[in-house]
Amino acid sequence: MSLTLNNVSRSVNGEPQLSDISMSLSAGSFNVLLGRTLAGKTSLMRLMAGLDKPDSGQILMHGENVLGVPIQRRNVSMVYQQFINYPHLSVFDNIASPLRVAGKSASVIDNKVREIASLLHIEEFLKRFPLELSGGQQQRTAMARALVKDASLILFDEPLANLDYKLREELRTELRDLFKESKTVVVYATTEPSEALALGGVTTLLHQGRAIQSGPAHIVYAQPDNILAAELFSEPSLNMLFDYQSNNDERFAIRPEHITLAATKETDLALELTVDVAEISGSETFLHMRKQAIKHGTDDQPQEIVARLRGIHHYQTGDTVRAYFPQAKLFRFDADGHILDPKKSSVEAVQGRHVKGGANG
Amino acid sequence: MAEIKLASLAHSYQTSPSAPEDYAIRQMDHVWEQGGAYALLGPSGCGKSTLLNIISGLLIPSSGHVLFDGKEVNHLSPAERNVAQVFQFPVVYDTMTVYDNLAFPLRNLGKDKATIDKRVREIAAALELDSDLLRKANNLSADDKQKVSMGRGLVRDEVSAILLDEPLTVIDPSLKWKLRRQLKRLHQQFDITMVLVTHDQLEASTFADKIALMYQGQIVQNGTPQELFEQPAHTFVGYFIGSPGMNFIEVSLHDGCACFAGLSVPVEPATYDLAVNLGSSNMKLGIRPEFVRLHEQSQAGALDTLVTNIEDLGSYKIVTVEVAGQPIKARIEEDDWVPTGRVYLSFPLPWLKLYADEYLVKAV
Does the domain made of A3-229 have the CATH classification 3.40.50.300? Predict the structure, then answer.
């Protein structure tokens, strides 16, 4: 089955939660909703599940309007951030519960539960109760219950947020593999850009109830439509280069991972910056730097630049560094924040306002 | 302000523990020096919360000693130990203003108005809460509430230590970056011993000067983020630090090489000799994906492999290759040549590690 949303909007107490969202999710697709807290991810999933109704717009399952269809008949499963299991039921009975509701025979239930439990590596815990399990095993149980009924739509609302990151890495890979051959429409909400990239699939960026951009994760990362899309897919934040401007109010930005401390080419842009703090993660250094206060627009804040560098770089607060911005990695936006063709960006188009560009500038 | 020392410390929740696995904390000695920024990192169930509760005084250890500046505090309450704590979920008084919430711990101590005012404003500025001081806490966003909660933990300046139990878990990722730096700056400003408990390696490594990595009730390595990454002392450290973790291959040792499936990989002679002398039957080769090298053309000593998977993670890719049924992951950068089909694999000698019975074989 497929799921289509046409111009869906919803407000609560006059506050718009979702505005004019259109999406088309095909059978067997893995879809990721990426957005910050309160971006509208949960609201959107509740509409997809049929738990809430839109004020306007259509929701079609396999081409049919489902707005009148009760949730029990929609064949939807949902997994939440909190591990929700029945505490008084064993793991087996927890997983079996949707099948019992559907009136399946004991032998069908037994086969199905064991199959799904083995896929999620919890077959040895079937007789235990949820509270006797670790957090990861509890969430695996909740996932197994969502998977067991062969739903046509499965919604994961930040399912791994409460788990340690190694476990997330493992479960994420398992989840992707589980749905490789399936016809189910999967929707997965996350606040983390790195998780969206690791999951692959189709990413939709959500911000303040609007869908900002949609496409394969690595494409949306590499080719954002506008400043907001570039910012939402940056971790840490996108660096706006206010010191460079062309004649027609174009703006330039670069991701933290594309800044270098050594010139890569003669055409690199460069800035003299002061180190705020260096965060060393073992294999990488996040170098937070700032420029002396400059005026840009109405904003008077000293400009901050953050670089994500490979390897260990020791710097003290107050050190001066020269940061380089390879032109091939720059994003170029028009005055309204829309992306411009990156190929047309050249050193001629970029003129330093305060500091001259170029490796030797 | 204090140095925290754990001497022969062990803890079991059972009444008569016998086997090592009966212990939530297996016997350990550990020191956190006065004024340091430390992280206690590990997966769920590794014992880090138990250890934190023992330090704060919520739990009395089954054996051993907790010493603050050399003085045993095993039986002192958290208040007597004068430890400040910040928890995973915000602890704030909803009906009070942000100002009153921050002032609360100081008023309890009977501090004078001027001192309180100065300190509250200092903390509020550091956490960027200055413009919210007169707002009621119940009108704040979840993120701001947690900031107030952290501020309450940090506001007393004469505490022995500040213990932070996963304070950033509920914070939005984009804000986490900022809060982590604010926390680090506060630490530098106040010179107080701070111990941050977390299951997030990035949080641990960017905050702490030294990380104690816990596994099965033990600290398996205590070192800088760089040491944990480059010289994992235990296979668990190799696995837990880094994403993806270290590659491990079961090997046997012959003729100066580590051998598996009829292939042999040369290792550093000093390490090799040491490993042979250990005579262990559980020998593993370890190398991080960041250090594995892939080549288009055959080279001396390089292994002949097939690419089985490529994951595009934006600014880098993880390539999985297979050698004699053994998967090995390699990290390549965004603009690197993308291998397909047959590729040749080499391991730079300095980054190739040997593990005997899960512990690093290290030539001194």
Answer: yes
Q: Which of A34, A280, A314, A329 to mutate to test the interface with B (most CBs of B within 10 A)?
A: A280
Calculate how close chain B gets to A255, using CA atoms only, in Å: 10
- Please report where in the chains the tokens 């998967």 appear, as a residue: B327
Q: According to the model, what pLDDT value does residue B157 have?
A: 81
Same domain, B200 and B263: no
Confidence label for A121 from pLDDT (cuts 50, 70 and 90):
confident
Residue of B nearest to A197 (CA): B313
Give the H or E element holding residue A157.
strand A153-157
Pull the structure tokens for residue B145.
Answer: 């509430």
The two three-digit tokens of residue B177, written as one number? 């970056």
Q: Which of B215, B238, B261 is the last residue of a domain?
A: B238
CA nearest B240 in A: which residue?
A166
Q: What's the rounded Cα separation, in Å, for the pair A2 and A64?
A: 10
Q: How many Cβ pairs closer than 8 A exist between chain A and B?
A: 100
Rounded to a whole number of angstroms, the distance from the CA of B114 to the nearest CA of chain A is 30
Is the pLDDT assigned to residue A348 strictly greater than 60?
Answer: no
Tell me the pLDDT tens digit for each residue of B302-318: 999 999 999 999 999 99
The helix (run of H) or strand (run of E) holding residue A218 is: helix A217-222
CA-nearest residue to B239 within chain A is A166
Is B167 within 8 Å of B154 (Cβ atoms)?
A: no
Close Cβ partners of A213 (under 8 Å, ≥ 6 residues apart): A204, A205, A220, A224, A225, A226, A229
Which of B255, B246, B263 has the alpha carbon at shortest distance from B354? B246
Q: How far is CA A213 from CA A153, A340, B16, B183, in A?
A: 22, 16, 60, 34
Model confidence at A361: pLDDT above 80: no
Parent domain of B334: 245-360
CA distances from A133 to A139, A140, A145, B44, B223 (A): 9, 10, 16, 11, 31
Query: How many distinct structural domains can be found in chain B?
Result: 2
Contact A283 B290 (CB under 8 A): yes
Specify the DSSP class assigned to residue A92: H
Homologous superfamily (CATH) of A237-352 is Nucleic acid-binding proteins (2.40.50.140)
d(CA B348, CA B361): 17
Q: Is residue A225 within 8 Å of residue A212, measured between CB atoms?
A: yes
SS3 B94: coil
| Interface ipTM above 0.90 | no
**Chain A CB contacts of B314 below 8 Å:** 193-194, 197, 217-218, 221-222, 233, 257
Is the pLDDT score of B169 beyond 90? Answer: no
Q: What is the pLDDT of residues A149-200, one digit of tens each?
A: 889 999 999 998 878 888 889 889 888 888 988 899 999 999 999 999 999 9
Interval A336-355 mean pLDDT: 61
